[in-house]
Amino acid sequence: MKVAKFGGSSVSNAKQIKKVLKIVNEDPERKIIIVSAPGKRSKDDIKTTDLLIRLYEKAINNIDYQHKKQEIIQRYADIVDELDMDRDILDTIDHTLEHYIHELKDKPSRLYDAIVSCGEDFNAQLIATYNNSQGIPTRYISPKEAGIWVTDLPKQAQILDSSYEQIYKLNDYKEKLIIPGFFGVSKHNFIVTFPRGGSDITGAIIARGVRASLYENFTDVSGIYKANPNIIKDPEIIEEITYREMRELSYAGFSVFHDEALQPLHKDRIPVVIKNTNRPEDKGTYILHDREINSKNVISGISCDKDFTVINIKKYLMNRQVGFTRKVLGVFEDYNISFDHMPSGIDNISIVMRSNQIKNIESRVLNDIQKHCDVDELSIDHDLAILMIVGEGMNRVVGTASKITHALAESNINLKMINQGASEISMMFGIKVEDAEKAVRSTYEFCYHGVCIKE
Amino acid sequence: MKVAKFGGSSVSNAKQIKKVLKIVNEDPERKIIIVSAPGKRSKDDIKTTDLLIRLYEKAINNIDYQHKKQEIIQRYADIVDELDMDRDILDTIDHTLEHYIHELKDKPSRLYDAIVSCGEDFNAQLIATYNNSQGIPTRYISPKEAGIWVTDLPKQAQILDSSYEQIYKLNDYKEKLIIPGFFGVSKHNFIVTFPRGGSDITGAIIARGVRASLYENFTDVSGIYKANPNIIKDPEIIEEITYREMRELSYAGFSVFHDEALQPLHKDRIPVVIKNTNRPEDKGTYILHDREINSKNVISGISCDKDFTVINIKKYLMNRQVGFTRKVLGVFEDYNISFDHMPSGIDNISIVMRSNQIKNIESRVLNDIQKHCDVDELSIDHDLAILMIVGEGMNRVVGTASKITHALAESNINLKMINQGASEISMMFGIKVEDAEKAVRSTYEFCYHGVCIKE
């Protein structure tokens, strides 16, 4: 049995929804469908979720919100009319929004989660009703009914492990099931949303819960590119990639598939395929536990992300001092900073983190390190981009490092940092922010076309 | 004013001692001389210090030690006779050894330190007496008289910061001063030795204390080689090297100059020169705070050491968990293990340490990590050698990494680990133990002769 998730652009209007249902209905294995809120219909359109956020802001600030509410209802009305459906559902939408606003006005963060969950929820109800009316037995299932029980902190839902037993029972239904993505219900009976982009997470949770044979993630691209298409013109699409590779690439800027959504799938080794709603015949990209390596697919992808900061610490005879590093990390823990890399020399240590982790508290953190750790030198560098070259098996091929560093040297890119080894499937390079695009271009051309870009 | 230290082979017999005193006496700036115990006179000879250790073992086990004691006295007798000196000093030697054995028999670790300190101490007394008899005002100064006050833990002496004030007063003497290396005196009035090879440490402490203009470290080679002469035939000698470079090279196997001896010098930027007692006209290797970089001396040296172990930890979403790394390091701290490197990926961390740090406690450490840190995968690899390429300014030269990895790839060496960046002056490569010599040869040929060794 397959679980299929459709992103916002796949369910933005009647035409798209018909495409989705054609895909769903032509394969009896596609039993459970997760839908997003209606996304943009054109480049200048506004996503339904963003309209809902504005509705929330008006309601919470006691500004007249009727016009905004009508705008939202109109999004669904357009779909209802084009699908030639009964308009009753629009009343339900209206009543539900008013109900939340009046019930939760004194609990702003609860109201926020309830309101923004409506984008997915209304869409799921609408699509289920329509498909059923077309003669295909279809049923809307709310997250609560499905058993998506989550932690209680607003906007930060995490699935409770105990949920999976109830979710497994979805296997008992004979109909096709349509479930809204993006949120669950807490034990205190509040709607709590997943971090944004969280419909991927709902799909992954359901796929794991029902032990799906495949989790199909439909979006508006035919798979995952080997490098950022804003930097590389028409990059190739990855055929197969492992969970681990996907995560390393997501980390440094790949955003096709939501990072945390891999976690539930990883555990039960449920394969994922990223497919294109508009070109369902395209093979897409499979995300798997293992993949076969051949000479052409050693390197899966190349990504680069810019917003990193590095703190450099020098301390003479550092490696002799048991506990020194732990003292330094204690300061980071005090400020709740999670760091990403920690290359170290004999007398030096560098701590690499996302710049947002240390924004605004930088001077306090540096002061505390200075005060508690008795360091010899302390410096901070904000001009750091991280280039990740990711590929299963690259650690087994002699000369990989040589080839990649060669390509970067030919493009005159200085390497502030190289980190290879802890992860067997990636090499990390710290480079100047201004070199980021050039680095992606030069390594892409070299890894996939064997061409050096000389500067 | 210069402080000169002479190693064991430089003071092993009368001929060598005459060479040393010629060097000392021809430069009025050479005021303070630190001497080692008599070293080997030929390849199969035994160092005096090793004879003293055997004397200690016999005495502590109530085995008749008279023969061993006579063997030691004979070492000095040979020197005394060849120098045509009065034999009185041999009685002093005999009495001192008997005195220590009887006074300290119930304090084995104190006895050990006292006995082994005799090698240097007797030699200093002998050399001072002889030089004085040659008409050059010379005085033996004991470490206590010099003010070398140290911590009280046997075999692990560390200088007390308060000592330097007293040491500075050595400037007041008009004579040449001969001080034994290798030990100091604790506030409880016990002799405590520095870690072995510790005459270098005494020299460094005195050089710092008297604010020497230069610390001359005389040994039996004409400086520091750019790579291990057991691997590279007749390697070039380094002309100038910085403290930092020296330390990174010492770390991975260079043993010419004792690692910890750099610490006191580093602080006051006192330059060191490594010279050859047998070829004092050779320029030697200068160890300095800064050096000028040109195209030929970017890379100072190449070293490789074999006895490393790495523990690899995988944990999904590791980088999101504030405090995870600190928890892991807590286990290492519990077992008092100091580690050397810690390359990390997004979901992985590797902890590299000297194998002796984890010997015998390996399974307990792994168990504790498993128990306290909830890791996904845990493995250990004993087959790790560390290759260090060290050079000030290499981080400023684009393509250094490319060239070195190229040389290694041409020799078919797989890189388990690359760590560059935390230290600006070195690149570290983790390789298989069996590749260690090949790696040194291939990078040496490439860095200094531009030649690739193809396998």
TrEMBL record, chains A, B:
Binding site for ATP: K5, F6, G7, G8, T219, D220, Y225
Pathway involvement of the protein, from the record: Amino-acid biosynthesis; L-lysine biosynthesis via DAP pathway; (S)-tetrahydrodipicolinate from L-aspartate: step 1/4; Amino-acid biosynthesis; L-threonine biosynthesis; L-threonine from L-aspartate: step 1/5; Amino-acid biosynthesis; L-methionine biosynthesis via de novo pathway; L-homoserine from L-aspartate: step 1/3
Protein name per Swiss-Prot or TrEMBL: Aspartokinase
Protein source organism: Staphylococcus pasteuri_A
Span of domain ACT: 389-455
Chain's role: Catalyzes the phosphorylation of the beta-carboxyl group of aspartic acid with ATP to yield 4-phospho-L-aspartate, which is involved in the branched biosynthetic pathway leading to the biosynthesis of amino acids threonine, isoleucine and methionine.
Domain of life: Bacteria
Keywords: Amino-acid biosynthesis, ATP-binding, Diaminopimelate biosynthesis, Kinase, Lysine biosynthesis, Nucleotide-binding, Transferase
